[in-house]
Amino acid sequence: MIYLIGGASRSGKTSLALRLLEEKKVPYLSLDVLMMGLRGAGFSEYANERDDVEVAANLENVLAPMVENIRYCGMPYVLEGVYLRPAFIRKMMDEAPDVTGCVLGYPETPWEQKLSDMLEYPSIANNWLKGESAEYQRNHIIRHHEISVMDKQAAAAANVAFFDTGESYRESLDAAFGYLVK
């Protein structure tokens, strides 16, 4: 099975991928790693730091063959990242019965609350944002709150499961895990 986990920054994608690794022994790749490599190699279409949604459109031409290759190899795998948009997840699921996915976000949680939560409960798994300036953190969370709102609507339109991790983070991740491994 190939698991595609999309959604906003700080929504729990890496935590969910790590749980799949720990409990089901399914390896994963954070697409942030892929993006840093592409940016480092000078691929400017992947260097837009402001808008992850725009970058995702360019990245789909890279991701689709990756998913196909993973399928060909016949091994379970998780890809996770903000660059996995709901319509792309649906497309991959429609093309193959061994692909599933979901989207995480926090559309109902005010961005101020999400920023406060991030500062109070920093992620152990992926804490890069904590080292940025207060202004950068604020702008990043505002943008990803907007992405959460877009993702919820896009996931509904694409018939992809959406889990709101804003208010009940652990419970929502448990629900997403149960959905993926059913």
Structural notes for this entry:
The protein is α/β, with parallel strands linked by helices. It has a single domain, classed as 3-Layer(aba) Sandwich (Rossmann fold), CATH 3.40.50.300. Helices cover 56% and strands 13% of the residues. The protein is built from seven helices and five strands, in the order βαβααβαβααβα. It has a five-stranded parallel beta sheet, sandwiched between helices. Helix 5 (111-120) crosses helix 6 (134-158). The chain is globular, with a radius of gyration of 15 Å.
Which outline best applies? globular
Find the structural class using helix and strand composition. alpha/beta
Spell out the CATH superfamily: P-loop containing nucleotide triphosphate hydrolases
The CATH class assignment is Alpha Beta
Largest sheet: 5 strands, parallel
Spatial gap, N to C terminus? 11 Å
Element order: H for helix, E for strand: EHEHHEHEHHEH
- The Rg value, from CA coordinates, equals 15 Å
Beta content comes to 5-15%
CATH-defined topology:
Rossmann fold
Q: Based on the structure given, which CATH architecture is correct?
A: 3-Layer(aba) Sandwich
List low-confidence stretches: none
What fraction, in percent, of the residue positions are helical? 55-70%
